[in-house]
Amino acid sequence: ISVDINENGYSRIYYGTNQANLNQATSQSTLGTSANFEINSLNEETTYYYSVNMCDDSANCRNSSVFSFSTLDLTAPYLLSHAENDLTNSSINMSVNINEDGYTRIYYGANQENLDKSTPQSPLGTSADFQISSLNEKTAYYYSVNMCDDSANCRNSSVFSFSTLDLTAPYLLSHAENDLTNSSIAISVDINENGYSRIYYGITPSALGQSTPQSPLGTSADHLIDDLNEEITYHYLIGMCDDSGNCRNSSTFSFATLDLTAPYLVSKVESNLTNSSIKISVEINELGHSKIYYG
Hints:
- Helices cover 0% and strands 52% of the residues.
- By secondary structure, the chain is mostly beta strands.
């Protein structure tokens, strides 16, 4: 503060934040008609009041009117707290609290080095709520809170992260039936994500009461079923679950075990025996063809 008075004299500045109580003062100037004062250690963004005290060599003193100034705001807001709420497989809500009135927004993305998306800017205030939607499932996202005050002082918070939930069950990409015999079959399974699979099977589509052991975690698995009966149609489906407990069953498929056992004779009857012919009746255990070899 520079001061000019009408005659040689001494001046000083009385100042404070209360207009009725200017309780701080500068050093007194040297004798003269002009003086410059520097006041330090002021608080930011604060209104101060001051009066110029002037005295001459004869100890005649006067105080000027009271003037005022406000220090500048050169400090950006900072983050007091934030919370992640209502996380789903595609969205999240965030609440933000900052230390002074300001505007906030969230910068976010799947790459920590490139937060290329943002929410709309909040209204002026110390608290704000944001919703981020259209996120990819089971994906790690990174974000930073951007904070600016009315004086355009801005600051970004540290980078935080969250991962969206996995709410979608694995699905079947392909399966194959291999090495079919009269009592066993191998079934290979491929699913779209890491998961566990097993085969539910039985002779009635609505009652698949038997199952294979669960496979290890992975996208491919081989299942062996080896307690089957010969020449029987079996129905089966593939049960698939991921690490988040999301499960899905495939459609129902079927196969028939092979017939590798020959018929056997249940009974025979010889009748109508003559001197040149005989009738032989044959009964076997399953549908088949029979003939008589003789000699």
